[in-house]
Amino acid sequence: MTSEIKLDQINKFQQNLANRQDSKVVERAVSHQGILGSSEDFTSESLMHPVFSIDLSTGNVADQKRSGRCWMFAALNTMRIRLMNTFKVDDGFELSQNYTNFWDKFEKSNYFLENVLKTADQPLDSRKVAWLMATPQQDGGQWDMLCALIEKYGIVPKYAMPETFSSEQSAQLNKYLNLKLRHDAVSLRKLVADNASDDKISETKETMLNEIYRMLAYALGEPATTFDFEYRDKDKNYHIDQNITPQEFFKKYVNLNLKDYVSLINSPTDDKPFNKTYTIEMLGNVVNGRQVKHLNLEMVDLKKLAIKQLQNGESVWFGSDVGQSSNSKKGIMDTALYAPDDLFDTDLSMSKAERLDYGESLMTHAMVITGVDLVDGKPTKWKVENSWGEKVGTKGYFVMSDAWMDQFVYQFVINKAYLSEDQLKAQAQDPIVLKPWDPMGALA
């Protein structure tokens, strides 16, 4: 049934508003302070006091600036802690996010071109091709994608490949790299349509990749192949390891078996039964590299695993929808922080599954859990290391309520050592392949 808005309905709505005794008070508050400022509950701020029963020492907070590399910062932050603790390196030490950024964009470009060829027989208005062309590459990523990069290229200290204008402010590079990739997609699809030989297609793609490498080298700098690792430890002792490769550096100084760490998600939607594994079609960066793979578990199980890892001195990489019910200046993420329902006198509630199914929420940002407050054995709030610099939160650290974790955290990375036997068996399953646009394929 089609029904237009009628004038008598508008008159009715206007009268209903006029009959409300609080309408002008609310209007003045919202029009001057905005929705969040008018609906903020200050009791949340007092409950989110940044003190925790388990609190790991993690050093200074990094700053991703105006780029979308949170997943990369979060992962490298977890790795630098191992290096800092083992070798007594200063708190200001960082691993190069620009180094992994370079190789990520180069590999994503190749991954995109390969997907262009795989879908070249489909019309431009097919959903898969339209999805592919919408964003050929971007800054975001997932844990498994970073592992694929490190397994192939290793890592380096930040001074071996420092930040550049385009790494810190990525909009211009993304614009022109995506223009280049769409331009190349036109050429590749035309070659396939003209029945060009495999050799001709491969030769053309190699030329494209050569040009992309040059663009990235100009914008981000060329990655180091060897470097000297030089530092003074906290006892003021001098150390130098000369002419070391990025792969050697990772194995020697981080010494992390990436295969031990797996992605666990909480997606309580009907299409994803718990205790099953999932991957996402056309999601990745390194062709023939590590596959993105998620094991779906109940949130209560994810929390138990996260606490075990924290108790063992290891931080936890996680992905969430950071823009929901959060205040970045104060560094608070809490479902009770704002009450827009009360402000507008309407029902705005949705379940976690409904938010995922109806496009209200998905993973948008990756951070690191570095502490938890346990009261009578149960978590009440969690300490979070962000990558937005030290001017937000408490010197860059946020407080996340346990209720917020229930609703807006979607992914944890956990060492397999903490999984139960049944969970290990479930994680070993071959993954069910989800559509490219599934919310569990969102890039943080």
UniProtKB/TrEMBL annotation:
Entry GO CC: cytoplasm
Superkingdom of origin organism: Bacteria
Cell compartment(s), UniProt: Cytoplasm
PROSITE patterns found in the cross-reference section: THIOL_PROTEASE_CYS, THIOL_PROTEASE_HIS
Main location: cytoplasm
GO biological process, one term: response to toxic substance
Catalytic residues, chain numbering: 70, 365, 386
This protein's UniProt keywords: Aminopeptidase, Hydrolase, Protease, Thiol protease
Pfam families: Peptidase_C1_2
Matches recorded under InterPro entries: Papain-like_cys_pep_sf (IPR038765), Pept_cys_AS (IPR000169), Pept_his_AS (IPR025660), Peptidase_C1B (IPR004134)
A GO MF term: cysteine-type aminopeptidase activity
Family: Belongs to the peptidase C1 family.
PANTHER family noted in UniProt: BLEOMYCIN HYDROLASE
Protein name: Aminopeptidase
Organism per entry: Lentilactobacillus parafarraginis
Organism lineage: Bacteria, Bacillati, Bacillota, Bacilli, Lactobacillales
